[in-house]
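Question (not urgent): is this output format expected?
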Amino acid sequence: MADQAPMNVGDARALLAHGYTLVGQIQLLHAGEVQLRGAVEQAYHALREQMVRRELSTIPIARLRDTTSGRLRLGPLEQLGVTSTTPPA
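Got this back:
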C-alpha cells in the first residue's frame, strides 16, 4: 500500500458514499429478516396450536382415569356427555 498514490477528495467522497449505501442495504436486509422471523414464529405457533388440539381430540376422557390412577373424578363430565379432551370451541 505504500506504493499507492494518496486518495484524492473525489475518490474519498465516492468511497464514503458507497459505504453509506452498503450500510443502508444491510439495515434493510436486517429489517426484512426480523419481519420474516416474526411471520415464521406466528405460523409455527398457529400450527402447533392446531396440532395440539387435533391430538387432544383423539384422547378419550376415560384415558385420563388410567393416567391418573383413578384419582381424577370424571363421572360428572361423562354424565354431561363429555367424551374427549377436546376443548370447547
